[in-house]
Amino acid sequence: MAEETKGRLTTRTMAMPADTNPAGDVFGGWVLSQMDIAAGICASQRAQQRAVTVSVDGMSFIQPVKVGDILGVYTDVVEVGRTSMKIHVEAWVRRGQIGSREKVTEAIFKFVALDQDGNPTPVPDKNDLPEYAAEDCSL
Ligand SMILES: CC(C)(COP(=O)(O)OP(=O)(O)OC[C@H]1O[C@@H](n2cnc3c(N)ncnc32)[C@H](O)[C@@H]1OP(=O)(O)O)[C@@H](O)C(=O)NCCC(=O)NCCS
Known about the structure:
Layout: E1 8-14, H1 28-47, E2 51-61, E3 70-80, E4 84-94, E5 101-113, H2 131-135
Antiparallel strand pairs: 1-3, 2-5, 3-4, 4-5
This protein binds coenzyme A.
Coenzyme A binds next to strand 2 and strand 5.
Pfam family, one: 4HBT
Organism: Oceanospirillum sediminis
Keywords: Hydrolase
């Protein structure tokens, strides 16, 4: 059975020629930055405030990304601490716009919610989230 995506589709973008390494494949750092952007959207929605990346674990580059691939990033909150959240992030591509979907990378990003002074601040209980934010988060 084909592997299924985990989490919500958070961002979509197209890999462009400027994003390639000297071998012509898309640079891993570009893919990582797309995952960080998506995880940041997910974390700040869950925290209802600014959140910063504090660690990235288990980053796997499973398949290359090619110019013209549509990269979709899926996010899922898998753990909530006092001020931190772990977000499972997967990036999938559709090759040539209509091709089959393939998982290219995955990792666990940890974010910390920050208050207006830049200090760690508690992540609210899920029951206190506005409906739109709660709908997108399993935890
Ligand atoms: C995130 C940051 C504010 C945490 O500061 P801190 O003084 O370590 O804060 P605390 O000790 O109160 O820890 C806050 C939370 O972060 C977690 N944490 C802190 N450092 C961590 C690390 N290196 N790895 C994993 N988790 C970490 C703690 O476990 C804690 O989680 P909890 O509240 O859910 O239990 C600080 O490390 C920072 O500013 N880092 C840079 C973030 C950044 O700029 N990211 C973008 C990179 S370009």
